[in-house]
Amino acid sequence: MSIRVQGASVRHGQVQALSAVDLLIGQGERVAIIGPSGAGKSSLLHLMGTAVPPSDGRLELLGEQPWALSARARQRLRARVGLVHQAPPLPPRQRVVTAVLAGRLGQWGTLRGLLNLIHPGDVPGARAALAELGMADKLFAQCGQLSGGQLQRVGIARALYQRPEVLLTDEPVSAMDPVLADHSLALLNRHAQAHGVTLVASLHAVELALAYFPRIVGIRAGQVAFDCPAAAVSEAMLDALYANEQLASPVAATASLQVQIPRC
Amino acid sequence: MRRVINGLVIVAILAAVLASFAYLELDLAAVVGSGGPAQMGEYAARFLHPDLSVAHLRAVGQGALETLAMSGMGTLLAMLLGLLLALPAAGRFGWPLQGAARLLLNALRAIPELVWAALTVLAAGLGPNAGTLALALHTAGVLGRLFAEALENAPPEPAAAIRLQGGSQVAAFCFGTLPNLWPQLLAYSLYRWENNIRMASVLGFVGAGGLGQMLYATLSLFQEAQASTVIIAMLLLVLLVDALSDVLRQRFVRA
Amino acid sequence: MLSTDQRDPAAIPRVLLTLLCLALLWPGLHLSELDPGVLLQAENRQQMAGFVSAFWPPAHDAGFLDLLFTATVQTLAVATAGMTLALLLAVPASLLASRALSLRAASNGGRLEPLSRAARLPVRGVLIFLRSVPEIVWALLFVRAVGLGPTAGVLAIAITYSGMLGKVYAEIFESVDQRPAHALLQAGSSRLSAFLYGTLPEAASEVVSYTVYRWECAVRASVVMGFVGAGGLGQQIDLSMRMFAGAEVVSMLLTFLLLVVLADLLSRFLRGRLA
Known about the structure:
Structural class of chain C: mainly alpha
CATH superfamily of the largest domain in chain C: MetI-like
Order of helices and strands of chain C: HHHHHHHHHHHH
CATH class of the largest domain in chain C: Mainly Alpha
Oligomer: heterotrimer
Order of helices and strands of chain B: HHHHHHHHHHH
Radius of gyration of chain C: 26 Å
Radius of gyration of chain B: 24 Å
Pfam family, one (chain A): ABC_tran
Largest interface: B-C, 62 and 56 residues
Main location (chain A): membrane
Number of domains of chain B: 2
Organism (chain A): Pseudomonas peradeniyensis
Strand content of chain B: under 5%
Largest sheet of chain C: none
Membrane topology (chain A): Peripheral membrane protein
Helix content of chain B: over 70%
CATH class of the largest domain in chain B: Mainly Alpha
Largest sheet of chain B: none
Structural class of chain B: mainly alpha
InterPro entries (chain A): AAA+_ATPase (IPR003593), ABC_transporter-like_ATP-bd (IPR003439), ABC_transporter-like_CS (IPR017871), MetN_ABC_transporter-like (IPR050086), P-loop_NTPase (IPR027417)
Distance between the termini of chain B: 50 Å
Shape of chain B: globular
Number of strands of chain B: 0
CATH topology of the largest domain in chain C: MetI-like fold
CATH superfamily of the largest domain in chain B: MetI-like
Helix content of chain C: over 70%
Number of helices of chain C: 12
Number of helices of chain B: 11
């Protein structure tokens, strides 16, 4: 069993993001998580990626309980789990090649990591990861010069380069045009199938989820609404899932370089 | 009401200005009036013929290089020291260390360079070493505080993402925080360097080496021609560093 | 193909930059005779320890406090008087140096011709000269010219700060909207009235704020200038230091800190009020 979530709740301050969620995901399974905005898709992924501890219940990841481990052992476990963020948090002044190579910092020792900062050691590896996403020409560009969709592809390339056993992706294609989104999702699925990687993706677009993933989990108001094979998802289930959805899209703020120099 | 208070503030400022002049009993009349300008002019005229003999120019060149080295090394040392202190001062290692580091930074910053120089001359003897250390100590306080602020304001997400995929603290700092931070650190350091070249050329007044020591000596011996050369060298040095720092800023900070 | 594929385009510049830095570091270390270890040598440590151990308690007998008060007031007076004189020099200089009041530009759609630029160069050059020589050097020169005491400090601040203020004022005048002043100039008003009616209303708050801010800097500067004999706290610190009177040095440093903090507060208050 790859991921085992048992009665897990997540609370952000006063807001109950997830309440008593049960979910079992087996080795090599490919699962899409769908649901309206604010339903808790991101919270569930962040929970599974050990970004937040469950306020209640338990989480088992690759046969271990991350929050019962020592900090060092948890870092080792985290190196085996990849998380693609919706807006990849990449420093604007970092070069794409470095950002991709940073994917393997968990596997590398600190010294090797620092050396890669000065001189990228595995340019072909980073290029190969980017080339699959059609981004090889941006290898030496700065992250700050890329568009949102390009940044998302760099984030995916970084996770692929990490070669995790569990790949969690949070809205990985939300800023891409339909053709690119198709291509990127197909690539993720191919990669997962070829390497036996467990793939979990939260998706806004239901048709993409149904087209690419054999198993669909619907989330509404912090709880699992349904969990069934893609073929079994009916129009009625979707209507119930998205009833009264409010139109709201999170805006990612970009930080710009500000240097305030005192004059005295 | 606001107008009344503003009026009172302006009256108070004017009163303070008048009181200052009265308190100092400035005899500006003597400076500007009879005999004063002639005397000043005569004094100034002695600076109009800088000593351009080869021997003196060589000595001044040596002093200028020494001053440049003092300012550069002092700033470099201060960058290292400042970064070392900025990490705890930004709260990376818990609050007890944060308080201690902040106190130390404020103490370093509060004491002017010239006082530090007087102290280091006492401890390390005359010469540029004392000046370099004095610059480094004061500048470490200034840069440490600026670095700490920059660290606190740096977005935490990139580093958190690296931690989440198993990277160590050091790796997360170097890959997640530093890429955005270093242009800012460099900008602060360059600004301090511009400041330090001015200070380095005057620290010699208390015996800490460089052009200042030459200027002090030549003026004490009433060698205005030689002093004039030293002042010109200072001016060139300041303009050179300003230009150099501007080039580096254009190249690395605004890129 | 593969070799170009693997090459990092930034590698060569990085190597060269590193080599350049190393090449500069060596003479730098040599020239500055940098050796922090000196501070830790037993003999020097003892000397420092002796000096520092005299720090506590700070000197606080009545005679010394009286001296301290006089020196502090003198420092403040030097800063204020110096700023006033600097202002008197800086305002006309900034009007001469600023491109905002060019008649030619006003009748030329705001474009500045090389001639109008050149006409303003001498004033700009003088301003650069005035502020590029550190204030403490001016103080040293004036001490030689007018003797020890606060007069030298006042003159030094007046000279250096007129350079700084003049440059910044000129830039502020140029940065505000030029159209009101140009309209007035085109309507036949004199330059001064065009400035007063067209430029100053917009620039005033920034000018005031910068001036008050500079006053705060002048307070610090006047303390430092005392070290070459220009009166005030600095001169007393220098004297006490030469006499190894640690207790007095500490009292005066504390006073200096207090002064800086108070000046900062006052400057913030004034900027909030006037700007």
